[in-house]
Design a protein that fits this description.
This protein is of the alpha+beta class. It has three helices and eleven strands, in the order E-E-E-E-E-E-E-E-E-E-E-H-H-H. The chain has helices spanning 130-139, 144-162, 172-181; strands at 15-21, 27-39, 42-47, 52-55, 58-61, 65-69, 76-81, 92-98, 102-103, 107-120, 126-128. The longest helix is centred in the last third of the chain and has 19 residues, at 144-162. It holds the Pfam family DUF402.
Length: 184
């Protein structure tokens, strides 16, 4: 199954379409996830192993994990993937720096701003794709307030991850257990 790319985003199966674009409006990612619930950190969704993800013109299968969308004014969203022992895939905490997401019951949309922050297992936290961000901020014409907010957000997320502050304190494991128990 591929993500619904038609104009209607109404879903009756409890799943939510997650759609991101780049600053110029070009497609970035498009996929479906199962709604799990909300807590003080935001809205939690689950993507199963093999969930189709449309990335530009390419279709690939995601590694199962949790997607967190913090409250509407946040300039980031996170992805948490547990360690996979048989494949030696490390545990991953990955944060996309984005514009604040627009939340609907069946659709979440945002603009990906290229910067990412990641920790694999218990290794050092890294800010990724600074070169891509620097190139695209000029090429795509990011306004200076957007550039400043993206850089501030990446630094704040890096500090939160290094300090193991919520939601980077392992709270995602509770949601992972709930996802494994859910029928979707």
């Amino acid at each position: 199954m591929t993500p619904n790319t038609g104009s209607g985003d109404r879903r009756d199966d409890g799943r939510v379409r997650i759609r991101s674009r780049k600053w110029d409006g070009s497609p970035h990612r498009d996929n479906l996830a199962t709604e799990l619930g909300n807590d003080e950190h935001g809205r939690w969704l689950w993507m199963q192993d093999g969930e189709p993800v449309l990335s530009g013109d390419e279709l690939w299968c995601a590694s199962g994990g949790l997607r967190l969308f913090p409250p509407d004014d946040a300039w980031w969203s996170a992805f948490f993937v547990p360690r996979r022992t048989p494949t030696s895939r490390p545990q991953q905490e990955y944060v996309d720096i984005t514009t604040p997401a627009a939340h609907g019951p069946h659709l979440i949309e945002f603009v990906d701003l290229d910067l990412d922050v990641e920790r694999l297992d218990d290794r050092e936290v890294q800010v990724l794709d600074r070169d891509e961000f620097d190139e695209r901020r000029v090429h795509l014409g990011y306004p200076e307030p957007v550039v400043e907010q993206a850089l501030r957000t990446a630094a704040a997320i890096e500090a939160m991850m290094n300090g193991r502050q919520g939601p980077f304190d392992g709270v995602w494991r509770r949601w992972h257990e709930a996802a494994l128990r859910s029928p979707g």
